[in-house]
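User: Predict Thioredoxin-domain-containing protein's structure from this.
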Amino acid sequence: MSKPITVTSVEELDATLASHEYTIIDFWATWCPPCKAIAPVYEKLASENTSADTLAFAKVDVDAQKQLAQRYNISAMPTFLLVQKGGEVKKAVRGADAKGIKTLIGYAKKKASGEAVSEDEEKAFSQVVFSGGGGMGLMPLLLLAAAVWYFFF
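Assistant:
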């Protein structure tokens, strides 16, 4: 049972990325209601799925670690990145999407075990997870809600 690593420096994240085949990073903010809503789910998934050399879970507060948020071009919170050893971002989930995070975990475990990901699985994965800058879906509405919450509450 392991909790996500709370990243306090660039060096700490780089060390985590270097020591695990895959790392799922939660980019969040203290003022973000969707971030607060998904946090217990992310912590539970981390405690159930962390694996010594294979899969790590990390949390990056975008306000405290602006350099890391800029490195990964984070523009919406929460954003979950699946990063392969060496620093390559493989996939991203934007928003408080538990199903999307579970899909990242399944994808990482399968790839780390050496199993091939079929074309159908890759297609299903793409329907749940947004890669790169595409497919914001409800994100503008969530950002507006977060801004309203921040300024009025």
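The first helix runs from residue 10 to 19.
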